[in-house]
Amino acid sequence: MSHPSVPFFRPTIEEDEIAAVTAVLRSGWLTTGPETREFEREFAAYVGARHAVAVNSCTAALHLALETVGLKRGDLVLVPTFTFAATAEVVRYFDATPVLVDCEPTTLCLDLAAARRTLEALTAGRPVAGVRAPYGRVRAVIPMHYAGQALDVEGVRALAREFDLRVVEDAAHALPADYRDGAGAWRRIGANTADATCFSFYANKTITTGEGGMLCTDDDGVAERARIMALHGISRDAWKRYTAEGSWYYEIVAPGFKYNMTDVAAALGRCQLRKCDRLAAERRRLAEAYRTRLGDVDALELPREAEGRHHAWHLFVIRLNLERLRIDRAAFVDELKRRGVMFSVAWLPLHMHPYYRETYGIRAEDLPVAAREWLRVVSLPLFPGMTAAEHDAVVAAVREIVAQHRR
Ligand SMILES: Cc1ncc(COP(=O)(O)O)c(C=O)c1O
């Protein structure tokens, strides 16, 4: 039987996106302006944040967030090792040290018990893998919601209170993601769930502007500083400077960055945001269909939505039960590709990359859960607009590979 080839991702771009972007192109105003301001307002309302600051990537939002919480050279920041490059590199921008922490085996998010042990060891001056004494001040923690499922937000907050840490959330995967709080109320990631919450609108994210990001916060000071630092440390943005809304005069109050979002991107983002619930519902349906159709394959461990969570299903990450297979993950994904099914692997843990290994002298076995789990993970295609034939092809390919290589 021949299968259609299935891309890992296909963005949902419809006529309204094309019309909105075209209108901006015709308007004569391309960079940060009215579309961006509206996108910020609408995004803040959608997640339930007081402020939203639109920028040109989630990496930029994370960098700005760390700046606003006062990260300084030599400080320490807790970062999960099982994450994308951006989460830790932004700490290095300050010549501060990311303290890499292992992940929790069920959700693959930051292991809060391991984070606590690390904080206790740092406080007591005991050795911590990858951190050189004398220890700097531990300033912040950057929890990340792996694949789109919220981690234990209240657990992070409690830890932050106890050890006097600021919390910057990497919510690149988590739009929209909700959790039930201790009082039983549903809370959305971004609705004052951290000092700053950073979202990504990169091409394959749950909504996209091509490249883009958003920093959400309920802290007026964080929002104001982020706005200033996102545009050269200038006290007013270009739109206000050059239109009747503002004056020609501006002042540089700090050496800022160039992270502002364009109106072209914001127009796209506004259309995508209006579809966010629909796109999320489609992701959920596709994820549930995978769970139903692959649920009996005992060589696989399927991702599931935890109790008290609404998963954003940015990624559908299966884990191979390697002891039930005669092939490893590399051979498994080769087989997928041979059948025309694209995939992704998220991720080689940061502490196993040459830069972190060599700079911090950390060994794979220092963070054993991530070192073990990464060998088993495969992200399957999951995107709104995926056809029934494409879904069938992925399911058939996975079942065939397992059947052929079962131990
Ligand atoms: C967990 C995580 N954090 C941050 C980022 C960075 O996002 P951006 O590409 O918008 O800078 C990504 C991007 O894929 C990510 O997966």
Note the main attributes of this structure.
alpha/beta; Aspartate Aminotransferase, domain 2; 2 domains; seven-stranded mixed β-sheet; three-stranded antiparallel β-sheet; 13 strands; about 15% strand; binds pyridoxal-5'-phosphate
Q: Can you tell me about this structure?
A:
The chain has 2 domains: 15-274, Aspartate Aminotransferase, domain 2, CATH 3.40.640; 276-405, Aspartate Aminotransferase, domain 1, CATH 3.90.1150. It is built from 14 helices and 13 strands. It has helices at residues 15-27, 34-47, 58-68, 85-92, 112-124, 153-163, 220-229, 238-242, 263-274, 276-294, 329-338, 354-360, 368-373, 388-405, and strands spanning 51-55, 76-80, 97-101, 138-141, 166-170, 178-180, 186-188, 196-200, 213-217, 300-301, 309-310, 316-320, 377-380. β2, α4 and β3 form a beta-alpha-beta unit. α2 (34-47) runs parallel beside α9 (263-274). The site of pyridoxal-5'-phosphate has 14 residues, from α3 and α4.
Q: Can you name the CATH architecture of the largest domain?
A: 3-Layer(aba) Sandwich
Predict the CATH topology of the largest domain. Aspartate Aminotransferase, domain 2
Could you tell me how far the N terminus lies from the C terminus, measured between alpha carbons in angstroms?
A: 24 Å
Secondary structure: number of strands: 13
CATH C-level class of the largest domain: Alpha Beta
Helix content: 25-40%
Return the domain count. Answer: 2
- What gyration radius follows from the Cα positions, in whole Å? 22 Å
The CATH superfamily name of the largest domain is Type I PLP-dependent aspartate aminotransferase-like (Major domain)
Order of helices and strands: HHEHEHEHEHEEEEEHHHHEEEHHHEH
